[in-house]
Design a protein that fits this description.
Elements (H helix, E strand, L loop, with lengths): L7 E7 L11 E7 L12 E2 L13 H18 L8 E4 L11 E4 L10 E8 L7 H5 L2 E12 L2 H10 L6 E11 L7 E7 L1
Parallel strand pairs: 4-5, 4-6, 6-7
Antiparallel strand pairs: 1-2, 3-8, 7-9, 8-9
């Protein structure tokens, strides 16, 4: 699969020789991130310790979104039956048309009675407790994607949420976005 999206941002540039900073006297300027349309989805992420990686001049959050939208099914959730949705807590990512998802806040956790095929935790809210997580039901072989700012935070969250009790992790399942500045890290695991 190849990413075929391009993101734009809107910034303002002062018009003429005007030195004021009032928005009325500023012209909108569209800022384009370099296109990733010729880059394979697998190049949007990399192993954290890999020395020779393609460092893209694109915000890491954008690369993560592109990867999850284009590659989440193939890389993470291809073995999960569509009848068991992927739970996204306190976040939402488009995982493509092949992945059934439910996005929920922590306040709604007591009302969730389904068996889930996976879980995405994005910069885990400190309000999430291990007991809340243990009350959720997952099918055997469900997939977890834990996303954090750095590798240390990944490990802290695994310990804080007692994820090792029910999820199996391997170091080769740890990735980071292939961005030049401040990559985002994520670790995948399997429910046992």
């Amino acid at each position: 699969a190849v990413v075929s999206t391009q993101s734009t941002g809107l910034r303002y540039l002062k018009s003429g020789g005007d030195t004021s900073s009032s928005p009325e006297k500023m012209l909108p300027v569209t800022v384009y991130y370099p296109t990733t349309e010729s880059i394979a989805v697998s190049k949007l992420i990399t192993l954290p310790d890999k020395a020779e990686t393609l460092a893209l001049p694109v915000p890491s959050h954008y690369l993560l979104e592109c990867f999850l939208h284009q590659g989440a099914y193939e890389v993470l959730f291809s073995t999960v039956p569509k009848s068991h949705p992927i739970l996204q807590l306190e976040c939402y990512f488009s995982l493509g048309e092949s992945v059934n998802t439910i996005s929920a806040s922590l306040q709604n956790l007591p009302s969730l009675t389904k068996e889930f095929g996976g879980l995405i935790l994005y910069f885990s809210a400190q309000r999430l407790r291990s007991l809340q997580l243990r009350n959720l039901k997952f099918i055997s072989g469900a997939k977890l994607c834990l996303i954090a700012r750095d590798r240390e935070e990944l490990r802290e969250e695994i310990v804080r949420l007692d994820l090792e009790d029910s999820w199996r992790f391997r170091f080769r399942d740890e990735f980071k976005t292939a961005s030049k500045d401040s990559p985002i890290y994520f670790l995948t695991g399997t429910y046992v």
